[in-house]
Specification:
Blueprint lengths: L2 H27 L6 H25 L6 H53 L16
Length: 135
C-alpha cells in the first residue's frame, strides 16, 4: 500500500470519527438523544475503524519514507483533539445522567403517591375516617 493510500484511509477515518463526535455532541446538547445504545455502537465502530487505519499506518511507517514521522506527529495532535472532544461528550453524558437520576427520583415519588391514593380506598383500621357532610 502506498503512502498516499494510507493517508487517504486515515483521513477518511479521522473525518468519520470527528463528524460522529460533533453529531453526538450536538444531539446531547439539544436533548435529542433517542437511542443511546445505537450511539455507543456507532462510536465503537468508528473508533475501531480509526484504530485499524492507524495501526496499518504505524506497521508500515518505516517503509513509507521520512514523511511518515511528520504524519505521525500530525495524527497524534488530531488524536489529542479527539480526546478533548470526548471529554466534552463525557461531561454532557454526566449532565444527562444527573437529569435521568432526578427524573427517576421524581417518578418514584409519584409512584409512591399513586400507591397512597390507591390504598386510600382501603384505609388502615387505626386511621381516622372523614365523612363529608355537605352535599
Amino acid at each position: 500500500m502506498e503512502l498516499s493510500d494510507h493517508i487517504e484511509k486515515i483521513e477518511e477515518q479521522f473525518w468519520a470519527y470527528e463528524t460522529l463526535q460533533n453529531n453526538h455532541l450536538a444531539l446531547m446538547r439539544e436533548d435529542r438523544l433517542s437511542d443511546v445504545a445505537a450511539l455507543v455502537k456507532e462510536r465503537k465502530d468508528a473508533s475501531a475503524n480509526l484504530q485499524k487505519a492507524l495501526n496499518a499506518f504505524v506497521e508500515n511507517a518505516g517503509s513509507l519514507g521520512g514523511r511518515s514521522i511528520e504524519l505521525l506527529s500530525t495524527y497524534e495532535n488530531r488524536l489529542n483533539d479527539i480526546m478533548a472532544l470526548d471529554e466534552q461528550i463525557a461531561s454532557e453524558i454526566e449532565k444527562h445522567r444527573g437529569w435521568l437520576k432526578k427524573e427517576l427520583s421524581q417518578m418514584k415519588h409519584g409512584k409512591k403517591a399513586i400507591q397512597g391514593y390507591q390504598s386510600a380506598g382501603h384505609p388502615p383500621k387505626n386511621r381516622p375516617r372523614v365523612f363529608s357532610v355537605s352535599r
